[in-house]
Queue: 2 jobs
Job 1
Amino acid sequence: MKIKRGVSICLFSPKGGVGKTINAINIAGIFKLLEKKVLIIDFDIYSGDIAVCLNKRVKKDLYDLSFDLDGRLFNSIKDYVTKVDENIDFLAAPIDPRLANKFNASNIVDVINYGMAEYDVVIIDTNHALNEISLSVLQSVDFIYLFAKNDPLDIKGLKNIVTLLDENEYDNYRIVLNNSRDPFKHYFTLFDLKKILNHDIDYTLSEELYLKDMDKYIMEGIIVTLDKHFPDYFFKDYKTYLTMATDVFGGDENE
Ligand SMILES: Nc1ncnc2c1ncn2[C@@H]1O[C@H](COP(=O)(O)OP(=O)(O)OP(=O)(O)O)[C@@H](O)[C@H]1O
Ligand SMILES: [Mg+2]
């Protein structure tokens, strides 16, 4: 296997629908602005949406990659990626959902390592279930972004995963409070959250980032953060994304 070059990040939440996929893509856009080569891996094997959100036709997906790794037919990860632009590629979840069951989870570590050998940043989207795939991803990556909305059910799930990670002495997770997914949910104060979680909220995406025409961006495969007006219209969240991105390089990769 080639020498490690990049860093790996996963987005995880113990509840579904909190904005992991949209933010995996938005953050990929920010890394592109920082002139990084980015690979997004859609390890939401059963219901991955990365290809749809980027409006791309996929020729090979993670099932093909897993099949070829098992059969020793694998040559290069580049044979399985779908290109978005000159900086961003992605590995799609199985397009045929019947093949998702046949994806071999024991290949996850190799897939991530092959990605890190070729790209500056590997961004991994996950399913909210704490299954073999998610656990393997959580154990393998350099950084974990835990996403949650500010409501009782999300925070209950977040508390569970934070406790689990703390008990297993993970110190590589960051908490992202996503107020942009549903701007009307702000049940707990930051003080409450810190007390409940016994951990800081590392990043907050603001209500202002709620985009009522998000589906239009998805239909057109547009990465919101690459819109030339994004830094002007969403300056606060642009700064937050930049901080999230530069923090994984030790905070010294200023654009
Ligand atoms: N900033 C935003 N503004 C408006 N809608 C948003 C925003 N972020 C996410 N959404 C919408 O919220 C829904 C859930 O987002 P997304 O699919 O990214 O969440 P997820 O955590 O990946 O969900 P799942 O667990 O089902 O994979 C989608 O319909 C998406 O379009
Ligand atoms: Mg998703």
Job 2
Amino acid sequence: MTDLAAGPTVETRELTSAVRTALGTVTDPEYPDISIVDLGLVEQVNVTPDGHATVGLIPTFSSCPALAMIATDVSSAVEVVPGITDTSVIWLSTPVWSVDRTSLTARRQLESSYTVVLRRKDGTLRCPVCGSDQVGDQSMAGPTRCRSVAWCETCRNVVEVMR
Ligand SMILES: [Zn+2]
């Protein structure tokens, strides 16, 4: 008897989970040891029974050229998953990326490896170098449009703020 009920089959569920695992190996070129999963870019993963994968990503820094590289890397990583025949990468305009989407692992790596500080929900900043709250925005013009530069009054380091 054939079960015609709609919904993902065991096969597509397994494929979807294999695709998610593959996405965990894709990193942001600007932060080569943090996966796009930890950065909160991956919003949707759909796999059809015949192996077409669609990956919906949320751009973190919408004007950064890194996005094109990420899309290419996602296709390369997903296409080698056994059972996947074809991959589409789409950039979603909603939901909007926010710091809350990053994992604790990503936040710790951004702070410790890149001296990047993530703005908290209440708008406050914490210095990634010394932990001080005495961080003020120095300039809204950072290295890229998605980041700005701030100044820690306690340890006198310049830190990058990811918005
Ligand atoms: Zn500091």
